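Design job #97: recover the sequence.
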């Protein structure tokens, strides 16, 4: 059984017991969170319409707060000695999927 969840404007395919990296959620480490399922697949059964997913839940536990890869950027404008370097490192929550119910 697996599910496709929506979190932070992105979708992830998850299964029970997996750890997945999602955008920052409301909650601290160790707290339970509920994620929005978009589709649930259990063998030959596929639940994907809003009516079918009314009672479906995907729950998980926040394991840690992690940082993504470092992004290095550089902008310049020619002939003006105008240069700028910048960096960015996105913050994420690592969530362990505890249960998928349909």
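Job complete. Output follows.
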């Amino acid at each position: 059984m697996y599910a496709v969840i929506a979190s932070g404007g992105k979708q992830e395919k998850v299964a029970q017991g997996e750890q997945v990296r999602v955008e920052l959620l409301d909650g601290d480490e160790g707290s339970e969170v509920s994620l929005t399922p978009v589709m649930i697949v259990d063998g030959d059964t596929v639940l994907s319409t809003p009516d079918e997913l009314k009672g479906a839940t995907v729950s998980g536990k926040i394991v840690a707060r992690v940082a993504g890869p470092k992004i290095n950027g550089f902008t310049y404008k020619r002939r003006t000695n105008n240069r700028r370097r910048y960096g960015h490192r996105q913050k994420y929550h690592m969530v362990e999927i505890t249960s998928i119910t349909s």
